[in-house]
Write a structure and sequence with these properties.
The complex is a heterodimer of chains A (about 190) and B (about 180). With about 190 residues, chain A is mostly helical. Chain A contains seven helices and no strands. The radius of gyration of chain A is 33 Å and the shape is elongated. Chain B has about 180 residues and is mostly helical. In chain B, helix 7 crosses helix 9. The chains are: A mainly alpha (about 190), B mainly alpha (about 180).
Chain lengths: ~190, ~180
C-alpha cells in the first residue's frame, strides 16, 4: 500500500495537499499517525529551551560604535578645514564678490569657528567618560555641523556667484552649533573632574 | 520560556538619536532572542555570538531608518536572520555541513563522532545540516513562508520546500533510530 511521503504530510499540514493525499490520510491510520508525529515535532521544536548568550557582547558593540563616531568626527574635522580653505580661496581670488563689511564679518566668524575647533580638541572624548545622553546630543550637533560643512564645500566649488551674506550666515550657524558642542564637552569634562 | 519583546516607543526614539543608554537597553531586550535564533540556525555558540554582535552593530547603524512599521523585534530579527544566512552561504560552516551529512547517512545508532545512540529532538535538530536547520527553524518556529525563506536564501521556493521535507524525514529517522536503540 502506498503511503503519504513527507512532502505530502507537509502539504497536508499547510492545507495544500493533493486530493489523493487528503483522502488517503483520512483512511490510513499509519499516515494519520505520521501527520500527528509531524505536528508533535514542530510543537516540541517551538518549546525547546531558550539559550542565552554565554558572554556579554555589549561592551564590544559599544566600543565599536564609539570608535566609529570618533572616526566620523575626525573626517568632519578634515572636511571643515577643507571647506575653510576653499572659502578663503574664494575671498582671495574673487574679492569683487564680497563687500568689505561682509568680508570682515566673514573673517570674524571663521576665526571664531577655528577657535572653537581648537577648544573642542582640548575636550576630545578619547578615553573619557561619555554618558549616553551626552553622546546623543553631541552626535546630533555633529550631524548638523556636517550638513553645514557640506554646504560650505558645495558653495566653494565651481559654482558661480556666492552671496557673501549667505556665507556669513552659514558660518555663523556653524559657530553657534560649535559653541553648543563645546558646551556639551566642557560640561561633561567638569562633571568627571577633568 | 517566554521572553517579552515589547519595547517602549520612547526608548526607540532615544535610540534613534544615538543615545548609548537606550541602545544598550535595546541590546538587553533582544540579545537572548537574537542569540537563540542564531544558535538554532548555526549550532555553534561562537558563531551565534558573532551574529549577535554583527546584528547589533547593524541595528545601531541603521536604527534611524526604522520607521516604526511593525514590531521592532521583527526588524531586528530580519537583520539577525540575514547575518546568520550570510554565514551559511559564505561556506564558513561547510565543513561541519559535510560532517553532518556523513553522520546523518551513517545513522546515529552507529555512534559516529561519539554521539550517543539515544538522542532527543534538540540533538537530532542540531545534527541537521545548517541549511536544513535554517529552513526548519525559520518556517516551523519563526513562521516564515517558503517564499520569504527563498528570498532571503536567494534560492527557489521549491528548494525551501524540499529542504523542509528532507529535514523532517531526517528528524523522524534520527528519532526513530534513537528510540529503537534504547
Amino acid at each position: 500500500m502506498m503511503h503519504c511521503t513527507m512532502d505530502d504530510l507537509l502539504a497536508l499540514r499547510a492545507g495544500e495537499a493533493s486530493a489523493w493525499a487528503r483522502q488517503h490520510a483520512e483512511a490510513c491510520v499509519t499516515c494519520r499517525a505520521e501527520l500527528e508525529a509531524l505536528y508533535q515535532r514542530v510543537a516540541q521544536l517551538k518549546a525547546l529551551p531558550v539559550r542565552r548568550p554565554p558572554r556579554d557582547r555589549w561592551g564590544v558593540v559599544r566600543d565599536a560604535v564609539v570608535a566609529e563616531r570618533r572616526r566620523r568626527r575626525e573626517r568632519w574635522g578634515v572636511w571643515s578645514v577643507a571647506a575653510a580653505a576653499v572659502v578663503a580661496g574664494l575671498l582671495v581670488f574673487r574679492p569683487f564678490w564680497t563687500a568689505p563689511v561682509a568680508g570682515a564679518e566673514l573673517t570674524r566668524v571663521k576665526q571664531q569657528s577655528a577657535t572653537l575647533e581648537q577648544q573642542l580638541q582640548r575636550y576630545e572624548p578619547e578615553g573619557r567618560v561619555t554618558s549616553g545622553r551626552e553622546a546623543a546630543v553631541a552626535s546630533a550637533l555633529e550631524d548638523r555641523i556636517a550638513v553645514i560643512d557640506g554646504e560650505l564645500t558645495r558653495m566653494g566649488g565651481p559654482a558661480p556667484a556666492v552671496d557673501p551674506a549667505e556665507l556669513v550666515k552659514l558660518w555663523q550657524q556653524r559657530v553657534d552649533l560649535m559653541q553648543q558642542l563645546v558646551s556639551v564637552r566642557v560640561t561633561r569634562a567638569s562633571y568627571v573632574g577633568l | 520560556m517566554t521572553i517579552s519583546l515589547a519595547v517602549p516607543d520612547i526608548l526607540v526614539a532615544r535610540a534613534k538619536t544615538g543615545d548609548l543608554e537606550a541602545l544598550e537597553a535595546l541590546y538587553r531586550a533582544f540579545e537572548t532572542p537574537v542569540y537563540n535564533l542564531a544558535l538554532r540556525m548555526l549550532r555553534q555558540s561562537e558563531e551565534a555570538e558573532d551574529v549577535l554582535q554583527e546584528t547589533f552593530l547593524e541595528v545601531v547603524r541603521s536604527i534611524k531608518q526604522y520607521r516604526g512599521e511593525g514590531h521592532l523585534w521583527g526588524w531586528v530579527r530580519q537583520i539577525a536572520v540575514s547575518k546568520a544566512l550570510m554565514r551559511i552561504r559564505s561556506g564558513q560552516l561547510r565543513h561541519t555541513d559535510e560532517l553532518h551529512e556523513e553522520y546523518v547517512q551513517a545513522g546515529p545508532g552507529l555512534g559516529v563522532g561519539g554521539v550517543p545512540a539515544r538522542i532527543d529532538l534538540e540533538r537530532a535538530f542540531e545534527r541537521l545540516t545548517p541549511t536544513s536547520r535554517a529552513v526548519v527553524w525559520l518556517h516551523d518556529v519563526e513562521g516564515y513562508t517558503h517564499e520569504e525563506i527563498a528570498e532571503r536564501m536567494e534560492r527557489t521556493v521549491s528548494f525551501s520546500k524540499s529542504q523542509l521535507a528532507r529535514a523532517h524525514a531526517r528528524l523522524r529517522r534520527l528519532l526513530a533510530e534513537g528510540g529503537e536503540a534504547q
